[in-house]
Amino acid sequence: MENVGLSTTVVGSWPLSNSYENMIRAFKDMINLGIDYPCYPQLVSMINQFLSPLSKLIKPLEELNGEFFLSDDFKNPNKPIALEYGQFLVNFFQKNPHLKDHVRGTKACLTGPFTLASEIILKDNVSKGIKPQIFDEPRAIMADWIIDKLAEIMKITAKTYNDMGINIISMDEPILGLLVGKKIFFHSEDFIIKTLDKALSEIKTLSSIHVCGRISPMLRDLLLQTSVKILDHEFASNERNFNVFEKDHFANSQKFLAMGCIKSNFSEGKSENVIDYVEEVNALIRYIKKGIDKFGKENLIIKPDCGFGALRKAFKDENFAYEIVLNKLKNMVIAVKQLK
Questions:
Q1: Which domains does the chain have, with CATH numbers?
Q2: What sections of 189-280 are H helices per DSSP?
Q3: Angle of CA points 247, 253, 256, to nearest 5°
Q4: What are the tens digits of pLDDT across the range 168-199?
Q5: Exposed e or buried b for every residue in 175-188, given b needs 16+ CB within 10 A?
Q6: Which residue, 40, 162, 29, is CA-closest to 102?
Q7: Nearest CA-CA partner of 251 in 318, 185, 298
Q8: Are the C-beta atoms of residues 263 and 269 closer than 8 Å to each other?
Q9: Which of 13, 162, 237, 269 has a CA 20 to 30 Å removed from the CA of 320?
Q10: DSSP per residue over 284-314, as a string?
């Protein structure tokens, strides 16, 4: 297994408008800042990134006014979807081979079947007999067979990303933090484990699952039973997660903990100075050292809490938000280098 202890990466999203030029800009900046495993810059919603192209291939799945509706059973497409993001990484290094030696590898992010299913509203025949819970209307996350099909779809895309040579392939599953607390909504523990494993099964490099928010002991134990290699969580915004995980969870399982150490989602302040929103290097050193002392540097990957896409809404000027992100990542990399 690749030794990634105390390496750096990002979660995915950036506070920039969606354009190829902005993807190039952000990716080059990640490399220049010294991020070990830069991810393709995610400039679109993680839901639309996969459900929008899927709605063009599956007739009963419709996209209407930014929402997705499923009206009938469907046959999975026989080809992977949303490959342009992984292909971006391949094309970038073909055009910029001199930059490949500046990174340890690359990362791609997918969206997990449970999170995708949580955004699909059911109607007509497929909604019959389903009593809404948590949500106001029947959703695909309440139907095992739909989640299973989505897992199969993501498995095919993950395999293609793996074949592209991408080192870390991370599946975003934020809905699991809501689905699995003191009890599990909708599904059995066994079904969730088998579904996640199916979606990740073709990843021969490093598979990862990102779940933001507070992690319950039940969710921790569930994720530890999966085949995933990297558990990716927030710590800067949810310090209680330090009490949920122990070193033995990783040392004895050949898994890694991707520990968030800089906040990525916060409200706009009054200051017009970028630095006022950025964690200081010394504070980051102390915080990361806390993680090293608790989990062991060999078991840790250092990264932001979550993606930075929310900052685009928090600050009217996307260039100001972008400068905040660059300075946060710069200090994060400096802190890690000093601890190495």
A1: 7-339 (3.20.20.210)
A2: 189-200, 217-224, 248-251
A3: 65
A4: 999 999 999 999 988 898 899 999 999 999 99
A5: bbbbbbeeebebbe
A6: 29
A7: 298
A8: no
A9: 237
A10: HHHHHHHHHHHH-GGGEEEEESS-STTHHHH
